[in-house]
Specification:
about 350 residues; alpha/beta; Aldehyde Dehydrogenase, Chain A, domain 1; Aldehyde Dehydrogenase, Chain A, domain 2; 2 domains; seven-stranded mixed β-sheet; 12 helices; about 35% helix
């Protein structure tokens, strides 16, 4: 099965999972072309400079996926299969059924290239040529100590995202911001914790609260653990206390539930959300670099409005690896540079030949 055939089958299986966003054979082949300059570089020698070269993928990839969202795990598996590698998927102990459902939708030749286990089999680390690990810093540090020096190790750790509204007096972008903050119940690394707003930040927060309420009515938040609900209640109480003391804090929240929360807080800094559709709005700072300094190493994506190159130039030096219009934060294209690096290139080696002819 060549690369184009694999892309076709993978796109067909991915169509069963709308949260993966637009996934077509053309999109997947565009990823191959973007990283290797030729869609057939995995299949045969292709022109490279004045000679020819071929891409050879690692034979076996171990994916250690996290439970917060199935999208990251499925994307990693799809990339491994696109390369033609064998894939070992270590899922959370509680399970991640989407991985098995995706494998079941594949043709036999690709199904045979996927193994799934909730507990790490004793021989998987030895079999793997590459490790891709998703999770908290402690998880990544643990697997890094287990990796052999010659194994390729790719880590996707804890990340933070945010939105920026540079110019929107009519608050037209609020429905898009609500979508970004609500999809996946704010569990992914691309989920915004805070929106920085130029102009009337409080007015924007009020409109955002309306849109969060409307999104909840259309797409109710999933069930959460008692500890998660208590974390939201505690944070609400702390903020309400600050507001009662005269601090510039305003709180909007769902009635008789923890379904959604919007907070306008003028205090500088990057607030960490307790997640599950709990988002902050802050005035746009005059020194954005100083505002984000403490979290710079963990930044992932910034959604912004309006999406102009001038505004992108302002945000690019701040530490993020992805910029996109508001409303698209949760739907990266297959060619996105996750954590600022290509996705396929670290998993291959090149072979070049000079002077060869057909």
């Amino acid at each position: 099965m060549n690369t184009a055939e694999r892309a076709h089958h993978l796109a067909a299986a991915a169509a069963r999972f709308p949260f993966l966003g637009r996934t077509t054979a053309d999109e997947l082949l565009a990823l191959v072309r973007a990283e290797f300059s030729h869609a057939e570089a995995l299949d045969d020698f292709v022109p490279y400079g004045g000679h020819f070269a071929k891409v050879l993928a690692v034979e076996t990839i171990l994916h250690v996926v996290s439970a917060n969202t199935p999208a990251a795990g499925l994307q990693s598996l799809i990339r491994g299969l696109l390369l033609g590698a064998h894939n070992l998927c270590k899922t959370p102990s509680a399970g991640l059924p989407e991985i098995g459902e995706f494998r079941a939708a594949l043709p036999a030749e690709l199904t045979a290239r996927v193994e799934i286990a909730g507990e790490l089999p004793a021989d998987w680390l030895a079999r793997a040529d590459a490790l891709i690990v998703f999770g908290h810093d402690a998880t990544i540090a643990h697997f890094r100590t287990l990796a052999r020096p010659e194994q390729r190790f790719i880590a996707h750790g804890h990340r933070l995202s945010f939105g920026v509204v540079f110019d929107d007096p009519a608050h037209a972008s609020a429905p898009l911001a609500a979508r970004d903050a609500s999809l996946f119940d704010q569990q992914g690394c691309l989920s915004p914790h805070v929106f920085y707003v130029a102009g009337d930040a409080r007015g924007y927060a009020a409109r955002l609260a309306e849109e969060m309420r409307a999104f909840q009515e259309r797409e109710p938040r999933g069930k959460i653990a008692l500890a998660e609900a208590n974390a939201i209640r505690t944070r609400r109480e702390d903020l309400a206390f600050r507001a009662a003391q005269g601090e510039p804090v305003t709180l909007w929240q769902s009635e008789a539930s923890t379904a959604w929360t919007v907070v306008c807080d003028a205090r500088p800094g990057f607030p960490r959300s307790p997640l599950n559709r709990f988002v902050f709005v802050k005035p746009l700072p005059t020194d954005f670099g100083a505002e984000l300094r403490e979290v710079r190493a963990h930044l992932s994506c910034a959604g912004f409005w309006p999406a102009t190159l001038a505004h992108a130039r302002t945000l690019a030096p701040l530490g993020v690896s992805r910029l996109c219009p508001l409303g698209q934060m949760q739907e990266p294209p297959w060619t996105w540079l996750q954590d600022g690096a290509p996705a396929l290139a670290p998993l291959v080696r090149w072979v070049g030949t000079e002077g060869a002819r057909e």
